[in-house]
Design brief:
With about 250 residues, this protein is an alpha/beta fold. Helices cover about 35% and strands about 20% of the residues. Strand 1 (about 1-5) and strand 2 form a beta hairpin. About 30% of the residues are buried. Residues about 105-110 have low confidence and may be disordered.
Length: about 250
């Protein structure tokens, strides 16, 4: 029996698989080791998940969720090991990795290390290291929150030429605190959807990554690391009815 989890801060979707067939789905509250202690996670697993599990032991657990950073993932693994009847491996990764594996086919979902090249995996690691995955989360790799475009530095002052669209969410809510807040775009098929940003002023993925690093993460991402991140972003391009999506991919 295999237990797979897709988790955010508000809810966790669990799927129990036996002989490659899903046999039960369970919903619980969200689990995020970045915000929760080991004891709090244990309590949620013991009270909400364990009573709903079929009888028997769990051979493997694959947990994909927000907050599963290299520093906090061990907290989650210990909580799972102490709360559930697991006799095999417990693997915890960011929900971003689940999205990437999902886009690369069935073998990738099962954890095939060859689904992404070594360079693409390195790009994914940089994506996390520069905090891109703090906002770009879930199966769509984004689209779930509103964030400030000038979180770390004055983007609008540096760009100049004020635009009506610069108000962001404030233009809809009228609330001062929503000024310069924009919906985080999802990154699926991002290489086919230029130009970028709310103002459409950026035509390359490299420049979009550079700007996000400076103004959202507060870091100047070196060109080599940007190249790796862009390589990973290109793996998020999907297919429709077994055929590659139409469109012209940006060159850099």
């Amino acid at each position: 029996m295999i237990l797979i989890a897709d988790s955010g801060s508000t809810k966790t979707d669990w799927c129990i698989v036996f002989n490659d067939t899903p046999i039960k789905r369970i919903g619980t509250k969200g689990i995020n080791p970045f915000f929760q202690s080991e004891e709090e996670i244990q309590q949620e697993l013991t009270h909400s998940l364990l009573p709903q599990l079929p009888e028997g032991t769990i051979n493997s657990v694959f947990f994909y969720g927000a907050g599963c950073t290299p520093e906090r993932a061990p907290v989650l693994r210990r909580a799972i090991a102490d709360s559930l009847p697991v006799i095999g491996n417990i693997k915890t990764n960011s929900d971003m990795l689940a999205a990437a594996r999902g886009l690369c086919g069935h073998e990738a979902v099962k954890g095939d290390d060859k689904a992404l090249t070594a360079q693409e995996i390195e790009g994914y690691q940089r994506f996390k290291m520069y905090r891109c995955s703090s906002c770009h989360v879930g199966k769509s790799v984004g689209g779930q929150s509103f964030e400030y475009m000038d979180l770390k530095k004055a983007y609008f002052e540096d760009r100049g030429n004020p635009l009506g669209s610069d108000e962001g969410l404030k233009g809809f809510t009228g609330k001062a605190e929503d000024l310069h807040r924009f919906k985080v775009p999802n990154l699926r098929n991002v290489e086919l959807t230029a130009p970028y940003l709310h103002d459409g002023t950026v035509t390359t993925l490299d420049e979009a990554v550079r700007i996000m690093g400076v103004y959202l993460s507060g870091m100047d991402i070196p060109k080599g690391d940007r190249d790796l991140i862009v390589g990973f972003l290109r793996t998020l391009t999907g297919e429709w009815n077994g055929k590659p999506l139409a469109g012209e991919a940006v060159k850099n």
